[in-house]
Amino acid sequence: MKNNYGPIGYKPNPVVQLLNGLFLLFLVATMLIPIWNTLVISLSSNASSMEVGLKMWPSEFSFEGYQTVWKTVRLWEPFLNNTIVTVVGTTLHVVLSAMAGYVLIQRGLPGRNLMISLIMLTMTIPGEAIMIPVYQVVKELDLLNTLTSLVVSGLVSGFSVLLIRNYFLSIPYELNESARIDGAGNMWIFVRMYLPLAKAGLATIALFEFVGKWNQFTPALLYITDQSKLTLQIALRSLVVESDATSSNFFMTPNVRMAGVMIAIIPLIVIYPFVQKFFVKGIMLGSTKE
Question: For this UniProt entry, which segments traverse the membrane (predicted)?
Answer without folding.
Answer: 21-43, 84-105, 114-135, 147-168, 189-208, 256-275
